[in-house]
Specification:
This protein is mainly α. The chain has 2 domains: 31 residues, no CATH class; 38 residues. 68% of the residues lie in helices and 0% in strands. The protein contains 5 helices and no strands. α4 runs antiparallel to α5.
Length: 81
């Protein structure tokens, strides 16, 4: 899969070989401290608001600090239900 599509392998020994590519190596460093997100339907409450807020900020719409605080409040309210 790495050779055909550039996807870093999950097998550590294979990843070490693929990590000769500096981009693959960088993803490995980032992923080393990563925490997996839960694969549960409730995460939709997070991603819907998060994605909408990010898109608005990328488009230059709204104040980043205010928009992010509003997004956090919306997500917390949905999770609390």
């Amino acid at each position: 899969m790495f050779e055909g599509g550039g996807r870093p392998p999950a097998l550590t020994a294979s990843f070490d070989k693929a990590a000769e590519d500096p981009i693959v190596a960088a993803f490995g460093k980032i992923g080393a401290d990563g925490v997996p997100m839960p694969a549960i339907p409730e995460m939709e409450a997070v991603w819907a608001d998060w994605g909408g807020t990010e898109l608005a900020l990328i488009k230059g719409q709204g104040d980043p600090a205010e928009s992010w605080a509003t997004m956090v409040g919306n997500v917390e309210a949905k999770i609390a239900k």
